[in-house]
Amino acid sequence: MTSIDSSRVYEMDAALSSSGTVEKDMFFLMLEAHDYDAASSVRWLETKLRVLHELLQSGKSISVYLPATGGSAPVSSVADFDQWIGQHFPNSRRCYLHPF
Length: 100
Prior knowledge:
two-stranded antiparallel ribbon
């Protein structure tokens, strides 16, 4: 996977868990894990997706990175989240709900 300082990965994980923010760096790590398609990388990706799904299920809004614009967008429904997953991580669509 891409070389990013481990403290930066920790910060991104904390932001993902607490605020539901998928920053640019986290998005590209997730994309790389999806494209690498090994069991460990897919499991890592699906864990991140489950965290975001659980935040949505608890009534919180999340923010996802949009590579087409370089910006981010709020997501407040599971349907919109599924659409974002389908667009960027199609092999993991809905699999995050059913762990290995």
